[in-house]
Amino acid sequence: MKTVAEDPNLKGNHGIHYWECPIVINRAWLADCVYGRASVDEFIHTWVHESLHARGLASDLAILEYNQFPGYEEGVVDGLSRLVMKKLTKYERQEHPYDSYVAAMEGLAEALGMKPEELLRKLWAKEDLWVSKGVERAISHRGILGLRFESCPPWFSQ
Ligand SMILES: [Zn+2]
């Protein structure tokens, strides 16, 4: 737990995850929860979300992917956070900027004939956090619609 003064990256954020793995939760927000000024469910959701990001060290390609296409990582992490929170507290996040990322992952799962939870777990298991590589493998494994990824996505080529 830190204050914005201790970690300026917390300004405007409830929590953050650093690529080296530590997570930081905004201490003032925790106080708001304790005094009933903020949603405890949303606080726990953020804690779970940031913890799921901190599953491993990000590879250089994962960091590049996140900087250009954060929806891969955020879709997996927030999708799993939503599933965890629903099981823990019945809390369901409403209208969040990551909704489209989570919906994309759910649509991909449907296209692959998988349950969203199954796909999200497989993609989360990539410890280098390079999610699109896991998407590539999932599509190749299923061989849907004749789609095959033979090489890295074009944005990774030099
Ligand atoms: Zn996140």
Which strand order spans the largest sheet, edge to edge or round the barrel? 1-2
Classification by helices and strands: mainly alpha
- Unreliable stretches covering 5 or more consecutive residues: none
Element string (H = helix, E = strand): EEHHHHHHH
Question: In one word, what is the shape?
Answer: globular
State mean pLDDT (0 to 100 scale): 88
List bound small molecules: zinc ion
Strand content: under 5%
- Please compute the radius of gyration using only Cα atoms: 17 Å
Give an account of the 3D structure.
- This protein is mostly helical and 158 residues long.
- The chain has one domain.
- It is 53% helix and 4% strand.
- It has seven helices and two strands, in the order E-E-H-H-H-H-H-H-H.
- It has helices at 27-34, 40-53, 60-68, 71-89, 99-111, 116-124, 131-142, and strands spanning 15-17, 23-25.
- A two-stranded antiparallel ribbon has the order 1-2.
- A hairpin with a 5-residue loop joins strand 1 and strand 2 (23-25).
- Helix 2 (40-53) packs across helix 4, helix 4 (71-89) crosses helix 5 (99-111) and helix 6 crosses helix 7.
- The mean pLDDT is 88.
- Bound molecules: zinc ion (ZN).
Q: Can you lay out the helices and strands and say which pair or pack?
A:
Layout: E1 15-17, E2 23-25, H1 27-34, H2 40-53, H3 60-68, H4 71-89, H5 99-111, H6 116-124, H7 131-142
Antiparallel strand pairs: 1-2
Helix pairs in contact: 2-4, 4-5, 4-6, 5-6, 6-7
The structure holds zinc ion.
Give a quick set of tags describing it.
binds zinc ion, 158 residues, two-stranded antiparallel ribbon, mainly alpha, 53% helix, single chain, globular, 4% strand, 2 strands
